[in-house]
Request: fold
Amino acid sequence: MYDNLFRSAKTRSEADWLIGINASQALSIAAGRGTYSLGRVQTPTLAMICSRYLENKNFVPQKYWQLKLQTGKDSIEFSALSEEKFDSQQPVIDKLQIIKESGQVQVKSVECKKVNQEPPLLYDLTTLQKEANTKLNFSADKTLSIAQKLYGGKLISYPRTGSRYISQDVFDEIPERISLLETYDRFAGYAKSMKGSNLNRRTVDDKKVTDHHALIITENKPGSLQADEQAIYELVAGRMLEAFSEKCVKEVTSISLTSGESIFAVKGTVIKSAGWRAVFNAQEEGEENTVLPALNGGENLPLSDIELLEKQTKPKPLHTESSLLSAMENAGKELEDAELKASMKDSGIGTPATRAAIIETLFTRQYIVREKKALVPTEKGLAVYDIVRNKKIADVEMTGMWENALSKIESGEMNPDTFHKSTEVHASQITSELLEVQLTLSTQQDLTCPKCGTGRILLYPKVAKCDNADCGLVIFRNKSDKQLTDKQVTELATAKKTGVIKGFKSKAGKSFDASLAFDEQFNVVFVFPEKKGKSRK
Reply:
């Protein structure tokens, strides 16, 4: 199919040097194959990373101010923040002064409620990868590799699962699996406490089990494991204990205070029964643990202190592998079309089994790098994103349409041939779009080609090239691990030789300095000042 598309896509020369790749490689981008593979799933993933990066980089923080007061009762001191946020400083200073002069705070309302927090569902592969990235700083690919090894050792169930549920027959085996953990040091105490208790059935649903059930441990007790393997095993085992444990019961108290016509709020949480959260003694992110005294509405409290807080709005953080996996999993949530949104509800971009490979492809192709936990696009990645950002190849909606079509084929509502023809049309469209971006990628300067004397030199990210198709002059930007700048390429094209350039590297990894020049066939060669008249290609 792609060969036919290639023949119909104008000419090969029109795609030459598209960001340093040729037409066949451009088609590989469209097809999602080969060295430059960026297909239907990799491109939207790169787009999410790049758009978040640019949003973060271009974010302009805005200052705002809040008041924070200190009060208390019965030797229990606590603080509360003003509900109002102020865009300018003077009004909040005026309110601070009024509150200081009043010297007291009044309890406006007190609300206490009991909260039953259900345990989390069992892991599928994606949620395991997210947790391992957040808690252990493991990449998605590393987590999958370790989980696969544990599966091969018959210690956990099939890891490439997309389900977070188990069937009734698997549930019948869970008491035995929990008993196994009574002999595993980290979970022994908790596992023994579950003996004879009614297990939570929230994660049991035959209808929601796909090809493979959720991740659980097997009946085999692990022997000696490497540290990373033990960490992943304990995540799976611990989550299994959590999933079948009792609810966490909390008492949440919300108090509203007033002073000088300003309203302040504070929230306190008391754990009445830890339930599933006792497995890892987990504290919920952002949870308030403020201890509050018993208060009644209308009660007056003394003002101990009040201060002005200067704050700034913050951008969305750069994607980590954990947040990117969530974004890939929930990509369809951004779609407006209800049918497309429904079609991507359980799929998103890629599948649990392929998402790690999608991310690793972006690393391998050098479109992104890691900076601590953050995923940061390279110049190459940003260049590609700039090209495809508004094109069909990066369109999440198209992924939704394909998932919707595949569902209809499965249910017999659509003919597979119809879908095949639509993919041919789609491939033709994205290929044409890619081939048409050539002019937007080059920087044309007033540089006459030194070889033919008639063509103009066009500057691309990977090469500089004469626009005369019969000439064939090409200057590769990367020379012995050194990336040539526009200025250096321009100097070479105009003077046929550059000044001394520092920082080349030999095949042995040694650094050296040299000029660049054209030989008689207009190949670019090194010229060493200390050995005049000699050159080395």
